TrEMBL record:
The keyword Magnesium applies. It catalyses: D-threo-isocitrate + NAD(+) = 2-oxoglutarate + CO2 + NADH. This is Isocitrate dehydrogenase [NAD] subunit 2, mitochondrial. GO terms for molecular function: isocitrate dehydrogenase (NAD+) activity; magnesium ion binding; NAD binding. Pfam families: Iso_dh. Residues 39-366 form the Isopropylmalate dehydrogenase-like domain.
Amino acid sequence: MFKQSIFKGSRRYLASASRKQPSIGRFTGKPNPKTGKYTVSFIEGDGIGPEISQSVKDIFSAAKVPVEWEYCDVTPIFINGLTTIPDPAVQSINKNLVALKGPLATPIGKGHRSLNLTLRKTFGLFANVRPAKSIEGFKTTYENVDLVLIRENTEGEYSGIEHVVSPGVVQSIKLITRDASERVIRYAFEYARAVGRPKVVVVHKSTIQRLADGLFVNVAQEVGKEYPDIELQPELIDNTVLNVVSKPEKYSDSVAVCPNLYGDILSDLNSGLSAGSLGLTPSANIGHTVSIFEAVHGSAPDIAGQNCANPTALLLSSVMMLNHMGLHEHADQIESAVLATVASDKKNRTADLAGTATTSSFTKAVIERL
Ligand code: NAI
């Protein structure tokens, strides 16, 4: 019989996505026996990356989190025309099994392939978990938004298979495989069970993408038979978009899972509904052995270097990471301080939330609340 989550009704942002971890992709790292600290790989990223990373470092240090950072340079290198990340970074992440990552810029239409994609492929990060929840005390157009979306992270429209058929005619392949669909859908069911959500919504457009999305939905129906305690609800993406905008609370008891591009777009919509800003939404990229945590937003080149970026999304990503590592008390402490700061006053909020705080004054206000 399905059991209600012990976190139901909790006031914490990541309550539904925190202590209870799915059986797939569990952290198996150990602290250094000499120092008692875990080593975590840290990719600070581009644009606003270094500024928001500094905020995480300052807050972790003030909260005495038993974590040592190992900084990774992921400046791309090219081997046989393929974009790869430098070997020391690969070795660091494979050794530590966990990384925190700032945003990485992707050149449009030329230059290296997306490093985000390269990281996902290199470490087999097959599921991207994106919770989006209203923050209590911080008023936005929508209230009581509590959405969890799991995005397939390795293929679909991001397979990178494109070619020119003839001048003016371009073909781009959306690759859907049984294996990749099955592992992300199974993860979604395990996740729903672990956090106590009784429904998995499979978002698709199989009326048009009959083979590709058709396979995704068929696999969900097969996997769903192994989870009789969880209801499976296939839903066309256009219906999901309308429902999420008109009645977001309809999804508070479910976990949505979808192919790559739908997940990318839907999760930004979810961020807008829950907070009115991309600056609040965290995410986890889960693999079988390695996991990488990052904000949903990009490198925000328009505001880089101005000390005005909102570090909340990276901070909440670091909270997801601490919960993944079993460091729940530190996770709770930082999460409570961040949320209390966002909810407190306009002068403590950054400009994306119509406030007047800088990145560093926000960080200071969080540290005062630890
Ligand atoms: P973006 O997310 O960087 O920016 C969109 C808008 O949101 C901008 O107005 C920006 O100022 C604002 N914004 C984003 N994060 C914010 C924060 N923390 N605080 C305050 N405002 C914030 O998306 P955009 O402009 O499409 O992409 C810029 C670059 O980032 C591109 O090179 C893109 O490829 C890359 N990118 C990287 C991602 C990653 O590393 N996971 C994800 C998305 C984009």
